[in-house]
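Q: Here's a chain of 190 amino acids. Please give me its 3D structure as tokens.
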Amino acid sequence: MSMEIKGSYDPYKADYAEQLKAKKAQEQEKAEKTEKVDQAKQAQKDERVPAQDAYISSGKSGAKPSGLYRVGQDEHGNRKIFYDDPKQSDKASGEKNPKKAGESSEKSVKKAAGGPEKPIEECVSNTDKVDREIKKLKEKRQQLEQQIRSALGDEKKIRELEKKLAQVENELSQKDNDTYRKQHSTVTEG
């Protein structure tokens, strides 16, 4: 039996153009929806983010700095924070012999604290004792290493020396740091 088809019938050919248009329309709708969602999310983020402080240099802001505190050096060359009272500086500018900024600031701080004027007490920290102790440990370590090198044949002696060396290394690692120096330093008032 033979069958003959008249004309060519392709069900996909006729619908292909329409399917393509529908597919493009769907993709465009999805893109628009995602764009709207993204805009909504961005708006929510903008609402949630608080305003942040920003640095504005005094030159740009035009405002006069308060000038109450400044970093300077004391008579020994150490860094120190000074308090400059604006009321004192106005009076000092009218005087013939204005005081040094450090002197007026120290007095004004003491007066502001409400106590009588007292001389400034200085404390000195001394780590010489700890440094000597660490130096002795390093010397002992050198001696033990030298003894190990010289005792080539005697393994029993080498083991003993290595044990002593390990103890010295352990003690040295505990003591040769800033924390140990600070904890074991001697403080004197000067």
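Q: Can you summarize the key feature?
A: The first strand starts at residue 69 and ends at 73.
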